[in-house]
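Revision sheet: structure tokens.
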Amino acid sequence: MTSVNAAFPASPPRAWAEIDLGALKKNLAVAREAFPGALMAVVKAGAYGHGLEEIARTLAGEDIVFFGVANVGEARRIRNAGVYTPIYLLGATWAEERAEIVANDWTPCISSIAEAEQFNRLAAAQGKRLKVHLAVDTGMGRGGFVADDLVNALRHLESLENLELEGIGSHLPSADEDEAFTKSQFARFRSIIDELGGPARFKWIHLSNSAGLLGYDQGVCNLTRPGLMLYGVSPLPGFQEKLSTVMTLKSRVTLLRTLPAGHGISYGRQFVTTQPTRVATVGIGYGDGYPRHVSGNGAAVWLRGRRFPILGRVTMDQLMVDVTGAVDVMEGDEVEIFGPNIPVAEIAEKAGTIVWEIFTCITPRVLRCYV
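Predicted:
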């Protein structure tokens, strides 16, 4: 409930996401069981839509080595939430934000000499020695030094007196799709580290995301970066049963009507009834982040302990469900949009997208409720 004013003190949400913090910790335990080394919890993009501040506060006491974020804005939000776990910036940074990174002792990954030299100048000006990680491109193509540049790059970086080269990392682009390439990438990463002087040269060595952590021997790595699996979804189907659902997206039945045969439902008349049909209108739509692209692809919701199919196109604020014959369904009933009974991976598949996008597209007007 959210306060409105004195005359109307509470307004029930039309759509909300229940975030199970106990399940989050259980999934962290699964990650630790798979890899007993150090963990960087990836909390970028609002902790994959689950709520950055609350997730960071929950994990702050769980012996996390770093929180992985995408940008300075996310790092700032974690600090403003009173969380002081070390922060690692997962990608390249803007020149204009690097002074703030140095001032707060956040750890950037370095992808170019120019970036390193500016960090060194800023650290010198602030009387600091900034910890940095060397980013290596072993196949992702998104950032980092390519292999041919590494020996000279490392030599140059180590000559910069106000930088401390604390770690080295790379990223897996296909750990959930291409096992052969991923294994070759692990081998290539190990050979690069050997070329640079061996594992003892770096405090932290990291390569794996969730799929890499669950599916592969980590070899020389002593730090992994779980993301999706913390939020209850395995990128490798064989591990899904080990994980617990963290986010359950819910709404309510706002209206019940029986429509006659030949009546169109939603925009474009994509669906037309062929018989009298009891239709439940549910107060959630693509304006809340539920994907419009599931329309006509057999998506369902969970209501009164069973599945009911969505009819016609998902609209901005509402969707319609066929509850014909379900006399127990009533206005005000809770509806599970996805969660333990309607897997979010199923919704992603029917929308022709990935779970990461479904989670991160849940909009701010969906109230997050933490349990």
